[in-house]
Amino acid sequence: MRSGNPALSESTFLDLGTGTVVRRDAGAMTLNGTVNKTAFLLVLTLAAAMYTWSRFFTGGIEGLMPFVWGGLIGGLVVALVTVFKKEWSPVTAPLYAVLEGLAIGAISAVFEQRFPGIVMQAVGLTFGTLAALLLAYRSGLVRATENFKLGVVAATGGIMLLYLVNIGMRLFGFEGMGFIHDSGWLGIGFSAVVVVVAALNLVLDFDFIEQGVEHGAPKYMEWYGAFGLLVTLVWLYLEILRLLAKLQSRD
């Protein structure tokens, strides 16, 4: 049960003491429960995003940076807590959704001001990708084989490493890796690859959640599974937004 999503590691559904899958006869994780909780987290994310979005268009960018950094940093902290304390996910997962929504709303508004219409395109592509991959997964057209999982995990790790190195270079006064942010064809190609990798992580997440349901993981893992899927969706949306911005900046 390997996933490229750092929130859904191979041992997520395993009992750390015995190395065996945790089973519950009553109150076990279900697919419908996970779907419902995912929808609830998406609603929270959307509501928080609409709040910062409205603040931007009524009062400008001033005062929004605390929401951006507070949402991103706070979301990272809450995500780490959720990963290490999965039983807290019924509380931490909704909190993560709100924090990420606050940041996404402000970021989206900035992009929308520069490239009108880009946010709706990004939202549509994100949920369209989710629906298409879910359909392909359920129909058996796409299978999460071991080689597939290894490839996606390796690609995801490589992208994360590039981002960390780029951040580190900028912190120490270097220009960083220009192609990550550049709107040239190399930068567009890089963003396209990242979008594909992020999308493929959805397939691994579907498989991971399905395995948890089949092995009777405890009920709170519905929240954790929904949280892990939201992590991937947030990443995919932001990468699609960046890719569309690069494409439109060339017009």
Describe this structure in words.
By secondary structure, the protein is mainly α. The chain has one domain (31-249). The chain has eight helices and no strands. The chain has helices at residues 31-59, 65-84, 89-114, 118-139, 146-171, 178-181, 185-214, 221-249. Mean pLDDT is 86; it is low at 15-25.
**What percent strand?**
under 5%
Outline: globular
> Could you tell me the radius of gyration in angstroms?
18 Å
Mean pLDDT: 86
Helical stretch tally: 8
Give the assembly state of these chains. Answer: single chain
What ranges have pLDDT less than 50 throughout 5 or more consecutive residues? 15-25
Strand runs, count: 0
Q: Which secondary-structure class do the elements indicate?
A: mainly alpha
Pattern of helices and strands: HHHHHHHH
- The tally of structural domains comes to 1
Topology:
Blueprint (H helix, E strand, L loop, with lengths): L30 H29 L5 H20 L4 H26 L3 H22 L6 H26 L6 H4 L3 H30 L6 H29 L2
Helix pairs in contact: 1-3, 1-8, 2-3, 3-8, 4-7, 4-8, 5-7, 7-8
